[in-house]
Amino acid sequence: MTGSTKQLAEELSATTLLRFATAGSVDDGKSTLVGRLLHDSKSVLADQLEAVEHASRSRGQEAPDLALLTDGLRAEREQGITIDVAYRYFATTRRRFILADTPGHVQYTRNMVTGASTAELTVILVDARNGVVEQTRRHAAIAALLRVPHVVLAVNKMDLVGYQESVFAAIAEEFTAYASELGVPEITAVPISALAGDNVVEASANMDWYGGPTVLEHLETVPVSHDLTSCHARFPVQYVIRPQTAEHPDYRGYAGQIAAGTFRVGESVTVLPSGQTSKIAGIDLLGTPVDVAWTPQSVTLLLEDDIDISRGDIVVPSGDAPATTQDVEATVCHVADQPLTVGQRVLLKHTTRTVKAIVKDIPSKLTLDDLSQHPAPGELVANDIGRVKVRTAEPLALDSYADSRRTGSFLLIDPSDGTTLAAGMAGESFATAKAAPVTDADGWDF
Known about the structure:
The structure is a single chain. This protein is an alpha+beta fold. The chain is built from 8 helices and 25 strands. Strands 7, 8, 9, 11, 12, 13, 15 and 16 form an 8-stranded antiparallel β-sheet that branches. The protein has a 6-stranded mixed β-sheet with strand order 2-3-1-4-5-6, sandwiched between helices. Strand 20 (353-367) and strand 21 form a beta hairpin. Mean pLDDT is 83; it is low at 8-14, 72-83 and 433-446.
């Protein structure tokens, strides 16, 4: 390793990691923005750029189409749209990035749920000529439901509206009001032209009325608070290790990835859903005993007592155990082509546990135009967002999604073919949602 390469590796290891996703309606310019970010931040290899230039020339384009850096499928390039989630990895001297470029077509909205589920920031693009449209509101709602802490509104194609400040201000005001009502905690609006490069990496000379950061500057400096070590400690068991060899005749370890929090040797723990208790006798990390382990490390826990534990059980601190339940009420994003109906039999996958369940009720469906709840829709179809009540065959140790994105989420699966039907978030839907008051027989409100 050369000195300069070693220095760069040391700098990157010291930088923080930001996971972010892009979203927006069709032809808003998401892939072009991503390509511009990669190109202008010097994150594109020479052979990649050469391939893009060749593909652009074959299509009769004089300048390289930077959208081709992310639209890798043949169908995407032919149609000029993004179909699948495209993940890209790049870095600057200030931060490392994992980017999920998600589709804009309403047919592929479900893919945004995948891309944004682990994101700390979402960039939502709006075409300056069209303003906020239904798909913009849908993406804002999904970002709010998934508790994405930071949202960037990138008002694109400002070059096509004469770089007018009034156009940008009107769109930013409308979107901010809508997203704030959903409970999005932080919204940053940036006027850009992804095609021309205005305010993407370099500040624009065409919009001297804008004094905020460029998109990359904001990505490099936004606070990243994905430290899960201070959250409720949760350890879903993936595999029980029993070698039963001459060297390890009595070894019984429970392997998995720590979903949140920290575990220490000697700590009292409870195994859910059984409720059995024990103490951590040891922690093995990559074959080495350690005294403490934290998320997202993959470890093997050894307990003092020989108790019945299997895949799907969750080990938690005895003083911080969630309540187990068979009645799950949650908000779901329906992602399958076939509808979700009341009475339907499904599988519910929560962390490493999969149980049989029945959809008992679908109380409401979200109307994106005014954020009202449409009562008793009867079913949810592809891309619908609604509330569901599910009864499971076995108890689950579900956290509220507001407390833990890892252990408060689940999937509903079709038991016949394994198709994912819906992505669920337990507890209240939006951050601003408040529980309805409970009234007793005498009229008292609690």
